[in-house]
Structures are given as structure tokens and as C-alpha cells.
User: Which sequence fits this backbone?
């Protein structure tokens, strides 16, 4: 409990989000959503086929049944949520109060949005996104060292072998390098060398196999635009999801513009970059309608951190109130989507 609340309410020792009860309730809600999703899909709920990368299709062939798919999905989801928690709390010190809120928010965002399949290539590619993000957030410690710029792009290219659209995040990381004032000439050249080095290895592999179709197929997927607001009409559940996503963007934007931040300059830069990332991914949601749930998964990462920061400076009682209201709101969106779907 905060010192202010402890002086005001000395008898309330276990009120807030640091206890196990709110977190356990959130996990129960998430597990319930997964159990419902396990029994309702008709086919094997896994992304595969001609629209995915060859390496991903090769990995999917090793999955025997639907139960294994859901088990792998839960493990990958918890791993992504835990790494998000580590990046924000332990590595970056973005959230001053070290709570379980980020991890719980990530699980809640994912589990109450039925757009997601249990296993997608972006789930595994996200691990490389985290590696690149960690390199970016540590790059300010040695601004003239080009190795981190090389590593950022190399990690993103590695992840693109599973999900090619991860390459669309390269401009986002260049924006971050500019924001952290590390995009000098040497670092910029090093970032291109990271991309070039990786695809030289890929080219050598294609040369060994005498098959260069990888480059043409990956390039076609990379530039295959499917704008959400043009062409075919949007289904009702997708509209509800877009409304929920838009509300989270507005809430974070109001938090940045209305409430002055009490963080240090460096942490304000981190939070500002996460906000830019949220808006960037929000735009890509409308550009790549075919990969809507993939970009939505990435969108949940900065959104969970930013929403947790929105609650971080509140008193314990206010945090608990906002948390209950947030859980109720997400469940309402899930209920509305279920009604529209049925």
C-alpha cells in the first residue's frame, strides 16, 4: 500500500492489486475464455497453408492434435506476457511499482479478443521482436557503438523467417533510434548491414537448393495490402474489436496529453516510443486486413505496458477500481462479440 494510503487507511493492509486475488480472478477469466475457444472451433485452430512462411509450415507439421495446439498457444502466450513484464519492470524500469499488472493486462487483452487463433507464426516471431526491442532500449548506453543497430535489424530479419511482415517494423525501430539519438551515420549503415548480412545467408541457402522462389513469394506476401475500410464490408465482431482497440489508443493518448508525467526524461522517452509503436501498429491493423490478428497481437504488447503505466501513479484503491472496471469492460466487449457472432 502507498504511504499516503497507509497513513489515511492504516487498517486496510491488503487492498489493491499487489495481492493474489485480483490476479487469480484475471487468470480464471483468461482460462475460461481459452476453454470456450477450445470446444467451439470446428477445424484445427492453427495458421498454416500457402499464405505462411515455409519454415512455419514445417514446424506446424509436427503438431499432432488440437489439444497440443492449445497447450503450445498457452505456453507462448504466457511467455510473451512474462517477457513483456520483464522488459517493462526489470529491464527498463518503466513502471515504478513492480506489480503483476502488465502480465495480467496482456493476458486479459489477448484472451477476451476472440480474433486470435491459439497458435500463429507471429507468436514465435514476437520473441525476436523482444530481442530487438531490448537492444533498442539499451542502445542509449553507448550511442556510438554500431553493434546494437546491427543486432536490431538482424533479429527482425530472423523473425521474418517465421512471419515476413515483421520486416514492416524496421521503420518503427529507425524511428526509435532517432528518438533515442543513436541513429548516427555509422549506426544507420550498421542497420543496413544487419539486413544485408542476413539475406546473404538466405541467398546462399537458396543457391545451394537451386531454388530462389523464396524471395518472390516472401516479397509478394510482404506487399500484399488489404485495407480494412475499403472493399468488402466489415463483419460485426471485427467492428467491436476495432472499437475496443480505438478506445485503448484514446485512453493512452489522453494520459500522455492531459496528465503530466513524473518519470525521468529517459523513461519518458521509453513511454513515448511505446506510444508511437502503439499508433504505428494501430495503422497497420487497417493496412493488412488479412493479417489483422497478427498485428493485433503485437499491438497488445505496448498497450499492456501503457495501460499499466496509466494506473501506476494512482493510489491502491483507485487502481483496484480501475482494474475491476477494465475487466468488466473487456468482458462486455467479449459478450457483445459473442451475441453478434451467434
Assistant:
Amino acid at each position: 500500500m502507498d504511504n499516503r494510503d497507509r497513513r489515511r487507511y492504516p487498517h486496510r493492509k491488503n487492498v489493491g492489486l499487489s495481492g493474489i486475488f485480483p490476479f487469480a480472478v484475471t487468470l480464471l477469466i483468461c482460462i475460461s475464455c481459452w476453454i470456450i475457444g477450445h470446444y467451439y472451433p470446428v477445424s484445427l485452430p492453427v495458421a498454416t497453408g500457402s499464405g505462411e512462411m515455409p519454415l512455419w509450415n514445417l514446424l506446424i507439421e509436427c503438431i499432432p492434435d488440437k489439444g497440443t495446439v492449445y497447450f503450445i498457444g498457452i505456453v507462448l502466450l504466457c511467455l510473451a506476457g512474462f517477457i513483456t513484464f520483464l522488459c517493462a519492470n526489470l529491464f527498463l524500469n518503466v513502471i515504478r511499482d513492480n506489480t503483476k499488472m502488465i502480465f495480467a493486462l496482456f493476458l486479459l487483452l489477448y484472451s477476451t479478443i476472440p480474433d486470435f487463433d491459439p497458435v500463429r507464426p507471429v507468436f514465435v516471431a514476437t520473441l525476436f521482436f523482444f530481442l530487438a526491442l531490448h537492444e533498442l532500449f539499451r542502445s542509449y548506453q553507448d550511442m556510438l557503438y554500431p553493434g546494437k543497430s546491427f543486432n536490431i535489424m538482424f533479429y527482425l530479419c530472423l523473425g521474418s523467417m517465421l512471419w515476413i511482415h515483421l520486416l514492416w517494423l524496421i521503420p518503427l525501430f529507425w524511428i526509435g533510434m532517432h528518438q533515442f539519438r543513436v541513429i548516427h551515420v555509422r549506426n544507420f549503415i550498421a542497420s543496413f548491414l544487419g539486413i544485408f548480412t542476413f539475406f546473404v545467408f538466405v541467398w546462399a541457402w537458396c543457391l545451394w537448393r537451386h531454388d530462389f522462389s523464396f524471395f518472390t513469394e516472401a516479397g509478394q506476401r510482404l506487399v500484399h495490402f488489404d485495407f480494412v475500410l475499403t472493399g468488402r464490408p466489415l463483419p460485426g465482431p471485427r467492428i467491436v474489436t476495432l472499437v475496443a482497440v480505438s478506445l485503448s489508443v484514446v485512453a493512452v493518448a489522453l494520459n500522455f496529453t492531459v496528465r503530466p508525467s513524473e518519470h525521468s526524461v529517459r523513461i519518458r522517452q521509453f513511454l513515448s516510443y511505446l506510444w508511437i509503436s502503439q499508433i504505428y501498429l494501430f495503422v497497420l491493423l487497417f493496412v493488412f486486413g488479412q493479417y489483422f490478428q497478427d498485428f493485433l497481437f503485437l499491438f497488445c504488447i505496448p498497450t499492456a505496458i501503457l495501460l499499466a503505466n496509466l494506473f501506476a501513479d494512482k493510489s491502491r484503491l483507485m487502481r483496484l477500481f480501475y482494474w475491476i472496471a477494465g475487466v468488466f469492460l473487456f468482458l462486455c466487449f467479449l459478450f457483445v462479440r459473442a451475441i453478434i457472432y451467434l
Q: What stands out?
A: Residues 1-15 have pLDDT under 50 and may be disordered. The radius of gyration is 21 Å. Residues 66-91 form the longest helix (26 residues). The CA atoms of residues 84 and 301 lie 7 Å apart.
